[in-house]
Amino acid sequence: MLSMTAFFYIIFVGVPIVCFLYWNYFRPTSLWNGFFFLISSGVLYTLLILLLEKANQSLALIFLVPVILVILFLSVLGLSASIVGLFWNEKVLLKREGRSFSNLVPLIVALGLLGVQALMLLVTFYSRNIFLTTLLGFSTATLFYLIFLFIMYGTTAILYNHFPITKKVDYIIILGAGLIDGERVTPLLASRIDRGVALYVRQKRKYGHEPTIILSGGKGPDEKISEAQAMKHYLDSLPVIIKTVYLEEQSTNTEENIQFSEKLAGVRDGISDFKDKQVVIATNNYHLLRAGKIATRLGIHARGVGSKTKMYYLPTAFIREYVGYLVMTKRKHLLFIGFFFIVSLLQFIMYFVAK
């Protein structure tokens, strides 16, 4: 029979690690990937502290105290610090990028969090008001659910961005973006192309293999040429000779980028689909996970390479991507929020019934 210690290690250490390894390799875009990574990391870190405590208590404290301080800070000041950080980010963003609705994302989120804090303060003065108490309960449950998802989404995005490409790649799909003056690539789009080309060069150097690059992006209403054509012009200016480049010029969003690239490859190379091919998506780091999730929905097991984004722009861009993920998977999230609402409503009704 297994001893209790062995059983403990198998259940609380082995299972989370095995689950993480499985999800990270076979289902890398699933939020369970981020969840099991955090659980595994927490378990291993706790195990490290316990082992250190047996050898040297002072050394164990050095590893333990910073974690406790971080948890206390997030518990007590996390919400307030997030609000201040978002307001500061909004100020920097407007100064550098100008005013637009999409650039107001940090402000909108900050005001939403501030509203929850104001509700908390209001309930402390009117704690007997069942309506305010019920509203706070529902708002808090929904907020914690969204924060939990955001942490899982962020962790999964980091893991997906940093998974090494260790096999020969068949296709590198570089996703398009808006153009300058309707005909030139922006620095953001140029960084996507550079990231895709860097992978191409590594593949050629390491395996003697030259993947097909697909430049994907249609022509917007305010653009003179297609994004794919503008990307090709930029690609031609680089000191790298690409053997095979396809231009996909019909797509208007990420799903069409991937879908139409698959159809184009089918026409040009005579393949039925991407399911048996090694496909890599090149885009910005904040956008990579959602692009990967869309590919998974289309039945394509794609990996990705993400180009860096300016730090001041990253919070806005990542929040937008997170909102995009919530919209994309809205049914299950509405079920959870609906459950919180029903529980709160029942508590509200039971209060008056008991009275």
From TrEMBL:
This is DUF218 domain-containing protein. Pfam families: DUF218. The keyword Ribonucleoprotein does not apply. GO terms for biological process: Gram-negative-bacterium-type cell wall biogenesis; peptidoglycan metabolic process. Keywords: Membrane, Transmembrane, Transmembrane helix. The chain crosses the membrane at residues 6-25, 32-52, 58-88, 100-126, 138-160, 334-354. InterPro entries: Cell_Envelope_Assoc, DUF218, Rossmann-like_a/b/a_fold. Residues 170-324 form the DUF218 domain. GO terms for cellular component: plasma membrane.
